[in-house]
User: Which sequence fits this backbone?
RNA sequence: GGGUUGGUGGUCUAGUCUGGUUAUGACACCUCCUUGACAUGGAGGAGGCCGGCAGUUCAAAUCUGCCCCAACCCA
């Protein structure tokens, strides 16, 4: 598609240049791109709200910006299609919609790309300048991405876009930092932090993940240096012997009787010779190894806890690039891996290594580069979050979660937070902290809000001397923000959040948007992105940024396996769109319940294609049966009123379903009603009522409504048909003539005997079945048919569509002999009333040991009960009980004794002669 | 290791929160049919006892417990 797209425009294809018309078959290839171009060119989806607009009539989506330097994948396609269903429905239903788009090019992926493309190194540039290069390089990728997104036909407002690297967004990021700082929500602290030695930066807790790796357990003997116990030594087990130079203590569990004698003694570290105390602590895992463990600064999070709880010294044996420090003595300069082997060898030579065996265990690694993390003490910026956990939880509770179960995930995430959010990163590129430090007293000097964005590395601080100590030399902060610190601000970016100098307050350009109505997101990434966004925006605005969040599942391959490059099962949107219409792809995308993973399925795409064809062909038929805009007759005939009443029901139900993001249910409901009821039943009947004004009106009303109802799902084909048949294009203004800017249909309040309609459809099916079974063509004439059942007002329709020469509606039940076939109990009543007696009652009926007392026969013909309705006796006597007639129904086996053939349906009896 | 979700005819799935006894639809399969748009259409048929076990109940796909399997999140 990417290669076809550009030259499609100059194909000069006749169909493309043609005015919309129903001539011939539907040609999605020409039609879809034509409308995509026009929608964008003519700004059909432009958001033109004003700040005073009632927020309730504005529907705004906070779309998370994708990384644009990569390629469009099925996740993008699926996610944006779901958003588009909501956007298109809301635009028709409730007025103004903002469906914006963001390009995320503030990240390592874009930086690497820029370096490759321009053959430069970011180190050779000033930060600001390098970002300028990034913007230039990414512009091309953005254009390509935009093009591909537009080929999906989503109703994004392409005038409302932003890039996460642009100065306006940098300003918002820095404003966010200053605001939280002034609110006392941020602090800079020297503390142990999770560190990636490959990237040489601190990372936050959520950026690491577990990875199963092969390793060795090493049993190492430690000598006891003090005199208080009989033993000379004890053994610890460790996977990281290179950490023994960093060992600061040894721990024993208080319940560990075998090793209690060690507590209070001093251990000597082999090879290195330094002595450390042996302390008891209940965080020791007694099950592991000998039950005695060493504490190093730092091997893991437990070490950090011990370091803090027992006020242990800091021994740093590993530096920021995972190289051994001078504390490691002879091993200085080795990498941790080299040192591990060397130390193990030396331990063995000196007799301290008692055992060594292979194991496989979970190692915590940086999710970006898969490097095992270290823990280092360094000065970092943190956002304080642990003290507001309750508020964040409450905020999350105020939102609607689709699906609801995702709230549980949020709750567990909040409850499980153990560290404040570390937001500084030691990277060369990124959005800088707007901070300087006084060289003399380390006082923090914040930038002025009016000056943002600033880069302390190239800009001067806003003061000449330190307000604290009067010193005049400052050190710029070199760190940059964690990208999530920026990504978590998208609602503020979209709403135009800024600092207003005049009023000295934060303002929004589009306050009517905030809080946003919807935040969509894939379920894999919500803990990084969505959850942080809730927290950050809540801190800035004291309200939840979203009314609702829509969390979509993943697209799996046809075997329900996760798509991955290594598996080679990735399906590219380009390939799919080359083969199927976008509308068909959208039909498939609507098939899964929101939140569920679902497979890519060609059969659903083909089903979508068939639907487009059906809609097209049905439209052609409607066009031949009725003028485009017939008058509404004073009285609609029963069959036509029936259709419109059914349509009312469908409209009401679909409206609710779409408002609740139940796209799959809405899709199926609409398809069934359109295909089965409208096409198979009503259209067939309408063919025989061509000149009937009642039918003409119903046909056109239903057809217009169907196009409107399908529009959010199938925007291209509905637009084409709408423009061909109904649009008032005299103005030539697509913004007003497009089906996508019309009002969503309302139920019109048609009243009809839906049951009679249902019965009539049953009779028609019965006659079809009869013809089918007798191998007759469906348009074969039937001489005489009698119907016993409530089909008031539908007799003509039945007669016409089934080609019945003579149709009689019987007042009385036809001549039949009946015999009881079965008795159906209404268990919902019988159960609670008779309890365990039900078993006996069932047995009695089964064995025929019952009688029905019909003496006080209540049934009479005047009640209008149809022929198939079971006869009701007053009392069923069985198992010593008497059941009233509302507790059971008698199924009758009928035998027709008159002339002709009898067919029974649920609620009618049909006799063919 | 903890948590979440799911396991329904060959495939994908509705129904499960609010238990009621013939379990929904689509695709695939088989049979038949050119009805004034659509044979890429229409009519009909076969196919499941709802992951397993136990329990609660008059009644369980639906509630409870345990187990198995899968995915995801967290550690």
Assistant:
């Amino acid at each position: 598609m990417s290669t076809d797209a550009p030259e499609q425009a100059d194909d000069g294809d006749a169909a493309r240049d043609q005015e919309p018309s129903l001539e011939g078959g539907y040609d999605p290839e020409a039609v879809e791109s034509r409308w995509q171009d026009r929608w964008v060119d003519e700004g059909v989806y432009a958001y033109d709200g004003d700040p005073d607009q009632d927020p309730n009539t504005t529907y705004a989506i906070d779309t998370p910006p994708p990384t644009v330097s990569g390629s469009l994948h099925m996740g993008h396609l699926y996610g944006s299609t779901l958003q588009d269903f909501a956007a298109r429905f809301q635009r028709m239903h409730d007025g103004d919609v903002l469906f914006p788009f963001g390009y995320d090019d503030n990240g390592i992926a874009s930086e690497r790309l820029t370096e490759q493309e321009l053959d430069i190194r970011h180190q050779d540039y000033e930060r600001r300048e390098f970002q300028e290069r990034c913007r230039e390089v990414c512009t091309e990728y953005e254009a390509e991405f935009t093009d591909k997104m537009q080929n999906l036909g989503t109703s994004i407002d392409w005038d409302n876009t932003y890039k996460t690297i642009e100065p306006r967004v940098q300003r918002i990021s820095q404003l966010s930092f200053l605001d939280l700082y002034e609110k006392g929500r941020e602090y800079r602290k020297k503390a142990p932090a999770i560190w990636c030695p490959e990237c040489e930066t601190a990372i936050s807790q959520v950026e690491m993940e577990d990875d199963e790796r092969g390793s060795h357990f090493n049993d190492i003997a430690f000598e006891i240096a003090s005199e208080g116990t009989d033993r000379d030594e004890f053994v610890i087990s460790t996977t990281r012997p290179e950490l023994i130079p960093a060992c600061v203590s040894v721990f024993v569990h208080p319940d560990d009787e075998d090793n209690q004698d060690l507590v209070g003694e001093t251990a000597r570290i082999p090879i290195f010779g330094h002595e450390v105390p042996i302390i008891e602590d209940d965080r020791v895992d007694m099950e592991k190894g000998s039950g005695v463990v060493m504490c190093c600064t730092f091997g893991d999070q437990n070490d950090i806890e011990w370091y803090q709880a027992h006020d242990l010294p800091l021994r740093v044996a590993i530096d920021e690039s995972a190289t051994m420090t001078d504390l490691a003595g002879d091993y200085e300069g080795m990498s941790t891996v080299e040192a591990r082997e060397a130390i193990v060898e030396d331990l063995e030579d000196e007799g301290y290594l008692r055992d060594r065996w292979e194991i496989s265990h979970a190692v915590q690694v940086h999710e970006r580069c898969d490097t095992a993390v270290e823990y280092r003490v360094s000065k970092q910026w943190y956002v304080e979050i642990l003290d507001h956990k309750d508020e964040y939880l409450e905020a999350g509770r105020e939102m609607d979660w689709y699906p609801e179960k995702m709230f549980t995930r949020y709750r567990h995430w909040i409850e499980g937070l153990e560290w404040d959010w570390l937001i500084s990163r030691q990277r060369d590129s990124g959005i800088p902290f707007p901070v300087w430090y006084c060289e003399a007293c380390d006082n923090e000097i914040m930038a002025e809000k009016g000056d943002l964005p600033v880069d302390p590395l190239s800009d001067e601080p806003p003061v000449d001397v330190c307000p604290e100590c009067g010193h005049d030399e400052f050190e710029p902060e070199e760190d940059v923000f964690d990208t999530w610190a920026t990504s978590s601000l998208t609602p503020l970016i979209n709403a135009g959040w800024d600092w207003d100098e005049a009023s000295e307050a934060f303002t929004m350009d589009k306050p009517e948007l905030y809080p946003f109505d919807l935040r969509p997101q894939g379920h894999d990434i919500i803990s990084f992105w969505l959850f942080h966004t809730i927290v950050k925006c809540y801190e800035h605005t004291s309200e939840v940024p979203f009314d609702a969040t829509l969390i979509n599942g993943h697209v799996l391959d046809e075997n329900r396996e996760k798509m991955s490059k290594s598996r080679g099962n990735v399906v590219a949107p380009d390939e799919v769109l080359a083969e199927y219409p976008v509308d068909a792809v959208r039909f498939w995308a609507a098939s899964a319940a929101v939140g569920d993973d679902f497979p890519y399925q060609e059969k659903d795409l083909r089903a979508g294609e068939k639907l487009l064809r059906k809609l097209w062909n049905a439209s052609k038929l409607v066009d031949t049966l009725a003028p485009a805009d017939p008058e509404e007759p004073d009285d609609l005939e029963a069959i036509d009123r029936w259709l419109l009443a059914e349509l009312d029901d469908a409209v009401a139900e679909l409206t609710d379903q779409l408002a609740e993001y139940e796209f799959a249910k809405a899709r199926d409901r609409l398809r069934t009603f359109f295909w089965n009821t409208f096409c198979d039943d009503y259209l067939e009947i309408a063919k025989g009522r061509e000149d009937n004004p009642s039918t003409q009106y119903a046909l056109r009303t239903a057809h217009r409504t169907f196009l409107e109802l399908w529009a959010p799902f199938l925007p291209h084909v509905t637009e084409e048909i709408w423009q061909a048949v109904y649009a008032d294009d005299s103005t030539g203004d697509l913004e007003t003539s497009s089906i996508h800017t019309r009002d969503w249909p309302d139920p019109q309040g048609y009243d009809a005997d839906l049951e009679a309609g249902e019965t009539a459809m049953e009779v028609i099916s019965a006659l079809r079945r009869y013809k089918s079974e007798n191998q007759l063509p469906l348009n074969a004439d039937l001489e005489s048919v009698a119907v016993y059942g409530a089909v008031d007002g539908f007799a003509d329709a039945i007669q016409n569509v089934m080609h019945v020469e003579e149709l009689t509606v019987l007042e009385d039940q036809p001549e039949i002999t009946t015999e009881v076939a079965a008795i159906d109990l209404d268990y919902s009543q019988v159960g609670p009333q008779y309890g365990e007696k039900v078993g006996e009652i069932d047995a009695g009926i089964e064995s025929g040991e019952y009688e029905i007392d019909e003496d006080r026969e209540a049934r009479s013909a005047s009640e209008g009960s149809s022929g198939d309705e079971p006869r009701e006796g007053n009392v069923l006597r069985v198992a010593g009980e008497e059941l009233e007639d509302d507790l059971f129904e008698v199924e009758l086996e009928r035998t027709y004794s008159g002339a002709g053939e009898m067919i029974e349906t649920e609620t009618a009896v049909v006799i063919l002669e």
